[in-house]
Structure formats: C-alpha cells, structure tokens
Amino acid sequence: MRNALGIVVFLAFTFFLLTAAFEIRPFGEPVHREMDNYFIMHAQEEASANNVVTSIVFDYRGFDTLGEATVLFTAVAGVLMALRSRGVKT
Predict the structure, then answer these.
(1) Which domain holds residue 53?
(2) Which three-class secondary structure state does DSSP give residue 65?
(3) pTM of the model
C-alpha cells in the first residue's frame, strides 16, 4: 500500500513537471506586453527618471520596495540578536 501511494505521488509529480515544461513560454518573451509598452512610453514623464527600471522599482513599486527593505532589515536584526554573545565577559 505504501509503495503504491509513493508511485502515484511520483507519477503525479512527474506529470506536473512535464506539463509545466511543455507549457512554459520562451525565455525573454514578456507576459504582458501592454504593461511593458506603457512603462517604456510613460516612465520619464510620470516618474521623472531616465532609467525605466529605476522608475519602476522606486516610483511604481515603491511600497513593495519599502516592504522588502523592512523584511531584510528585520532578518538582519534577528540574525544579529541570535548570534550575539549573552553575558559572556572577557
């Protein structure tokens, strides 16, 4: 029974991977071309930035970037707190 369940799970997972491999889009082909064209055409006038990537990261997705920075800061603070020596005097 246990071997049969393992085989079924393995076959289901293999089917999922093969389906995903055949359905994947070609590398470099954008998913939403309308959004790409919008950002390219309006980045400088809306965000006053010459670099489109910079305008997307800091202006269009500013709150997302702020959240990522907050998570990174919290992770670093947690690691430092976990690694600090507790009450050891030299």
Answers:
(1) 2-83
(2) helix
(3) 0.40
Would 88 be classed as within a structural domain? Answer: no
Strand, helix or coil at 56? helix
Tokens found for residue 53: 């990537």
DSSP 7-54: HHHHHHHHHHHHHHHHHPPPTT--S-HHHHHHHHHHHHHHH--S-HHH
Cβ–Cβ < 8 Å for 49, 43? yes
Give every CB contact of residue 58 below 8 A, 6+ residues apart in sequence. Answer: 47, 49, 65
* Tally of structural domains, the chain: 1
37-75 pLDDT tens trace: 888 888 888 888 888 888 887 787 877 878 889 999 999
Cα of 28 vs its chain's centroid, Å: 17
Within-domain flag for 90: no
